[in-house]
Amino acid sequence: MKTVLSGIQPSGNLTLGNYIGAIKNFVKLQDEHNCYFMVVDLHAITVPQEPKALRERSEMVAALYVAAGIDPARANIFMQSHVPQHAELSWLMTTLVHMGELERMTQFKDKSEGKESVGAGLFVYPALMAADILLYNADLVPVGDDQKQHLELTRDLAGRFNHRFGEFFTVPEPYIPQVGARIMSLDDASKKMSKSSPVEGSYIAMLDTPDQIRKKISRATTDSGTEVVYDPSTKPEVSNLMSIYSECAGISLQDVQHRFEGKMYGAFKKELGEVVVAALEPLQKRYYEIRESGEIHDILARGAEQARSKAAQILDGVKDKMGFLPAK
Ligand code: AQP
């Protein structure tokens, strides 16, 4: 059985991009694999977070995992900060990664662009991500397209460690969906849909009300022309909306195209609004029940306990390989 690990930052309202690009795949993978799904709160603080909001969003992400169908009886759901080994292995990884490698990370460039002062945590973020994955010797890492570069670096670090200290880490593989790996902003298809975007109309939040969803979709930017045709190079905006339709309705892109042959953008967007509402409404209902019951705290406690036991074992092995004197 393969080990799968992934996580989402509690850094904003989770979007349809996070759902399609990440969570939907987590749900699929839990049946056949040994899964660890974290809320990566240590990553969220690489950009300033307000403490009260961080706490609320952390609980929100965990509850959304469960509401979306991740079953705590089959997968480990936990908060990254509840497993101290992540921070410890992260330091060890920081000593292996090269400055030039970190400087090449496009996410760092994007998130630091135009900022007067940038925390060092944002720069060394990929070392923490490598630690997250290697701490469980994960085989597969389901991520959206945007995380591919970080995963490549994790693979390099695993290889570097194995080369220097002897075979130890599994070199992880990315698991990237064919459709929906990069859901783009509703107002600009050259940018990915992002939960920390200051423009609310650019994303659909998983917890948006039906009216908000319909309104945002009706206002989404569309390419010139009128035909509903999938071609990301000439029709990026409509193609993005078609990917969302395909993922939310569970039909192929080809079928979406057939369905709207001879119809205009207006009719397509109207139906898309209903398809997204139908995909999110049952999940939202479960979400509010989970929050109301308070059960998420027990789920997180059990998940962290299981994660800590695996993480401690791997970290002991790493420290031994690196030459640390064992504690008595
Ligand atoms: N637009 C997207 N399309 C497909 N997948 C996406 N993911 C994020 N945005 C999209 C996937 O969601 C997972 C969690 O991402 P993250 O929390 O680590 O942060 P991120 O990749 O930086 O995503 P965001 O939403 O843009 O967060 P902020 O704004 O806080 O940086 C990952 O698997 C990611 O690929």
TrEMBL record:
<protein>
    <recommendedName>
        <fullName>Tryptophan--tRNA ligase</fullName>
        <ecNumber>6.1.1.2</ecNumber>
    </recommendedName>
</protein>
<dbReference type="GO" id="GO:0005829">
    <property type="term" value="C:cytosol"/>
</dbReference>
<keyword id="KW-0436">Ligase</keyword>
<feature type="short sequence motif" description="'HIGH' region">
    <location>
        <begin position="10"/>
        <end position="18"/>
    </location>
</feature>
<dbReference type="GO" id="GO:0005524">
    <property type="term" value="F:ATP binding"/>
</dbReference>
<dbReference type="GO" id="GO:0004830">
    <property type="term" value="F:tryptophan-tRNA ligase activity"/>
</dbReference>
<dbReference type="InterPro" id="IPR014729">
    <property type="entry name" value="Rossmann-like_a/b/a_fold"/>
</dbReference>
<feature type="short sequence motif" description="'KMSKS' region">
    <location>
        <begin position="192"/>
        <end position="196"/>
    </location>
</feature>
<feature type="binding site">
    <location>
        <begin position="192"/>
        <end position="196"/>
    </location>
    <ligand>
        <name>ATP</name>
    </ligand>
</feature>
<dbReference type="InterPro" id="IPR024109">
    <property type="entry name" value="Trp-tRNA-ligase_bac-type"/>
</dbReference>
<dbReference type="InterPro" id="IPR050203">
    <property type="entry name" value="Trp-tRNA_synthetase"/>
</dbReference>
<dbReference type="GO" id="GO:0006436">
    <property type="term" value="P:tryptophanyl-tRNA aminoacylation"/>
</dbReference>
<dbReference type="InterPro" id="IPR002306">
    <property type="entry name" value="Trp-tRNA-ligase"/>
</dbReference>
<keyword id="KW-0963">Cytoplasm</keyword>
<keyword id="KW-0648">Protein biosynthesis</keyword>
<comment type="similarity">
    <text>Belongs to the class-I aminoacyl-tRNA synthetase family.</text>
</comment>
<comment type="function">
    <text>Catalyzes the attachment of tryptophan to tRNA(Trp).</text>
</comment>
<keyword id="KW-0030">Aminoacyl-tRNA synthetase</keyword>
<feature type="binding site">
    <location>
        <position position="132"/>
    </location>
    <ligand>
        <name>L-tryptophan</name>
    </ligand>
</feature>
<feature type="binding site">
    <location>
        <position position="183"/>
    </location>
    <ligand>
        <name>ATP</name>
    </ligand>
</feature>
<keyword id="KW-0547">Nucleotide-binding</keyword>
<dbReference type="InterPro" id="IPR001412">
    <property type="entry name" value="aa-tRNA-synth_I_CS"/>
</dbReference>
<keyword id="KW-0067">ATP-binding</keyword>
<feature type="binding site">
    <location>
        <begin position="9"/>
        <end position="11"/>
    </location>
    <ligand>
        <name>ATP</name>
    </ligand>
</feature>
<feature type="binding site">
    <location>
        <begin position="144"/>
        <end position="146"/>
    </location>
    <ligand>
        <name>ATP</name>
    </ligand>
</feature>
<dbReference type="Pfam" id="PF00579">
    <property type="entry name" value="tRNA-synt_1b"/>
</dbReference>
<dbReference type="InterPro" id="IPR002305">
    <property type="entry name" value="aa-tRNA-synth_Ic"/>
</dbReference>
<comment type="subunit">
    <text>Homodimer.</text>
</comment>
<feature type="binding site">
    <location>
        <begin position="17"/>
        <end position="18"/>
    </location>
    <ligand>
        <name>ATP</name>
    </ligand>
</feature>
